[in-house]
Amino acid sequence: MQSFQVDGDLLAGALEEDNAERLPLIGDSTPSRPRPRAFTLSHSAFGSSGTFPSTARSGPLAPPTLKSRSKLFFLQLFANSASAAFLIFIIVWALASRLFQAAYRHVRGLNADRHRRPWDTDAARDARRTERVTKDIRYYALRCGFDVVEQTVETKDGYLLKAFKVVCLKKEAKVHSDGRKGFPVLIQHGLFQSCGSFITSEERSLAFWLAEHGDYQVYLGNARGVFDMGHSWLKRSDPRLWDYNIKELALYDLPALVDHVRRDTGYDKIAFIGHSQGNATMFCSLAQGMVPELGDKLSVFIALAPAVYAGPLTTGFPFTALKNMRWKTWRRWFGLLDFIPLMRISYDWVPSRLFGLLGYQMFAFLFNWTDANWLLDRKAKMFCFMPSPVSSASIFWWTGYAGFSTRGCVLDDNADKWFDKRFPPLAIHHGGKDYLVLTEPLLKRLRERETDVQLIRVQKMDDGEHCDFFWHVDAVELCFHSFLEDIERTRPRYPGERTRRSHSPQPPAHSPTSPPSAARDVRKLKMEPPLQDEDAVEYRKGERRDVEVLETGVGY
C-alpha cells in the first residue's frame, strides 16, 4: 500500500488553519489493515469515494506533540464548557416546553391503561415496576429467559467493537445435520444509540423475540466508541481515535461485524437489520466505490426508518444553527474528541433512571418524538442507553456545513447509480410520523434508477415514529412477523430443507395475531417467485421482481 509521511505537527496546524492544503488520499475500496493514519492515507473521512460525499475538514491528524497537546487542552476546555452549556440549555428548554403538557395528561388520567393488552398481565406490569433501570444488557436478558455472550470485534483500522450474542435459555438450540445452529441475524443501532435499544421490551424485545421465534443466532452490533470501547493502539484521549465519521463505519465497522458473525456461525450469508444510522451505514457500505462486495455476504437487508434522505425536522432548530458551522468553527464549540462530553459523563455518573427520563425529554424535544405508542413504564430503561458516545466529526458530518442535513442525502444524489447487482434483497419499514427521515424519495430512486435492487417489501406504519419499529407496544404484530417472514424467504435452506422444493415462501414460525384495529398494516398483492435453492436470490437480467404493497386496515 502506498503511504505518505505527514508532518508531525499537523495536529497543531489543524487547530489553527481550516483551509490548509488537503493531502491526497490513496487506497482501494477494501483496504487491508492500515497503519495509524499519521503514516498512511488510505480511505478516510477527508475525501469522497465513488457515490459517498464527505464534509470539508482538515487533513488526517498526526501523533500529538507537546505543543499540539497544549493547544488541544485549551481547545477542549472551551469546547467542553460551551457544549455543556448548549446541552443544559436544550434540556431546560425541553423540560419547560413539555412540563405543562405532561402535567395536564397526568391530571386527566390520559396515560392510564392506554395500551393495555392481553399479554400485559398484572404480573408483567408488577415485574416492570420492580426491575432495576440499569445499563447492564445481561440483566434484562436473564430476567426474561435469555442470556448474552459478550464479544469483542476488531476492525481493520484497529477499533474495538462490542458485540453481544443472544442465547435463548427457554429451549435447546437446534443443531442441523451440518453441525450449524440457526441462521444468523445481525442487528445494528442508530445514531446516539446502542444495542440496548433492542432488549428493553422484555420477551417482546426485537433481539429476544427473533432468537426465540425464529430459532436464529441473533447478534447485536455496536458502533465504535459505544460502551467505552477503544482502540488497539490509540487512547480515548487521543484525537485520532475520534477522527472518524459514517464513512469509517461503512468501510470498517460493518464489514468487521458481518465477517465476525459469519466466522462465529459458519454461514456464508447473514441477515442484517439496521435502524436509522445503522441502515444508512449499510447503504453507504454497499454503494459503488465503497465495499459493495459486502452485499454477497447478506441474505437480506431490512431497513427500519431508512436514513438516506433527510426529513423536514432537519430544517428546524437546532439543525439550522449547526448546518452553517464550518469545521473551523465547529471544532471550537464542540472540540475534536467525543461530541458534548457532558453526555458521556452523565451516562457514567447520573443514576440510570434519572438519566433515561432526562434523555427522553431531550430527544423528544429535538426530534419531535412522543411516547404515544409506547408502554410508559418502559420509557426510563429504553432511554438509559442513550445518548451513547459518538465523535464530534461524526455529528459534523450529519449536521454541520455541507453535511447530511444540508445536502439532504447520505449519498451523492446526482450519481447515476449507487448500487450494483451485489445488493441484497431489501425490505423497508417506515413511519408516517417520522420527521427525521424521508422514505418516499428513496423509494422513487430505487424504482427509477436502482434497477439492480430487489425491493421485496415496503411497509408503512401510519402512526409510526422513528423508533416504533421495535419500541411500539404492538411491534411484534406490526413488524416482527414481517422481519421473520423476509428472513425465512431469503435465507439459504437448512440441510433438511434442500431435499424438498417449496412452492411458497417459508411461513413464519407461527401465524401472526391480528393487529389492533387502530394500527395499520400492509397486504401483499403479489408475491415474488419462491426460492429454489440455497442461493438467496436469483437475479433476472432486465427484470424487476419487486413485491407490490398496498396500505390497508387489514393484516395479512
UniProtKB/TrEMBL annotation:
It comes from Rhodotorula diobovata. This is Triacylglycerol lipase. The keyword Transmembrane applies. Gene3D superfamilies: alpha/beta hydrolase. Residues 505-515 have a biased composition (Pro residues). The lineage of its organism: Eukaryota, Fungi, Dikarya, Basidiomycota, Pucciniomycotina. Residues 43-62, 491-544 are annotated as: Disordered. Residues 138-201 form the Partial AB-hydrolase lipase domain. Residues 43-57 have a biased composition (Polar residues).
